[in-house]
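A reminder from the course coordinator: this example appears on the midterm review sheet, so study it carefully.

Given structure:
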């Protein structure tokens, strides 16, 4: 009888371990190398009334209102969100995409983020691939980046955002990121994926729905002052949040007011950062075409693009 009881306990333990492993892997892939593929194939979402479908041609320039109150002492920082389409349909991230989707609190599917200081196709993104984790990313030439070369640039989608800041904030932020890039100390924090996943799931269950949005409920520890931490480990979006909260006063003030912990910022949260506006959306292959069309319709961005 004892042997039978022991076998039952062992079997139960194995089941628990398997379930935990599945949950762990699911949440780990949310930002693990920022490889989520939630938007593959037939999944369709809407971004400001623009239909995003990774199998269709995607191209749209958004109306912006920056020129209405733009000052000579102001500049733009650019953010880029990615909806990757992987060439290998049998990859583990594709198998786990349904589980990953269950932890996404917003209606957006972008799974990777990067930061840039002009509209040329060179943004800084954090992934777990060597030779260093913080590296340059090009949508039109993905072969130069180990993360991006796994994707189909004709079906992968990107959304470019702009944040208006003072010239001083622009220069400080640019120098901040360039220093991190040159020193190569910033690392991708794989273990952080699990708490981020559970935090997303908690947000997803909030009522009313407005609490699910970025800043809707205080994060784990509340506001964490980036300037008081000597931290070099992030996921892609927490690094962007860390950089902006360290150098842009409007973002910092928002984090303090809403008690946001930058460690728990996910890529789609960047859409809701104060002052951020959407510029254009396109496939990766059409990025430079879209940027050029933006400049034609919004000359205020001409200085940031060199075709």
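Designed residues:
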């Amino acid at each position: 009888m004892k042997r039978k009881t022991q076998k039952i306990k062992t079997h139960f333990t194995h089941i628990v371990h398997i379930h935990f492993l599945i949950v762990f892997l699911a949440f780990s892939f949310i930002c693990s190398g920022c490889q989520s593929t939630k938007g593959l194939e037939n999944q369709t979402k809407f971004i400001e009334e623009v239909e995003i479908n990774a199998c269709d041609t995607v191209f749209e320039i958004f109306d912006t209102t920056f020129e209405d109150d733009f000052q000579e002492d102001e500049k733009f920082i650019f953010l880029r969100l990615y909806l990757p389409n992987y060439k290998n349909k049998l990859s583990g991230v594709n198998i786990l995409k349904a589980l990953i989707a269950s932890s996404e609190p917003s209606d957006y599917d972008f799974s990777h983020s990067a930061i840039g200081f002009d509209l040329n196709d060179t943004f800084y993104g954090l992934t777990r691939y060597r030779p260093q984790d913080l590296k340059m990313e090009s949508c039109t030439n993905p072969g130069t980046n180990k993360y991006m070369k796994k994707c189909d640039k004709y079906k992968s989608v990107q959304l470019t955002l702009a944040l208006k800041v003072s010239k001083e904030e622009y220069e400080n932020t640019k120098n901040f990121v360039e220093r991190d890039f040159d020193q190569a100390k910033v690392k991708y924090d794989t273990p952080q994926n699990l708490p981020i996943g559970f935090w997303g799931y908690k947000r997803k269950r909030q009522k009313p729905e407005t609490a699910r949005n970025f800043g809707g409920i205080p994060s784990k520890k509340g506001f964490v002052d980036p300037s008081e931490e000597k931290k070099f480990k992030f996921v892609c979006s927490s690094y962007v949040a860390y950089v902006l909260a360290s150098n842009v006063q409007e973002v910092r003030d928002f984090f303090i007011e809403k008690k946001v912990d930058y460690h728990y910022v996910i890529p789609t949260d960047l859409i809701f950062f104060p002052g951020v506006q959407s510029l254009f959306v396109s496939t990766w292959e059409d990025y430079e075409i879209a940027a050029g069309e933006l400049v034609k319709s919004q000359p205020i961005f001409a200085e940031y693009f060199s075709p």
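Residues 2-304 form one domain. The CA atoms of residues 40 and 203 lie 24 Å apart.
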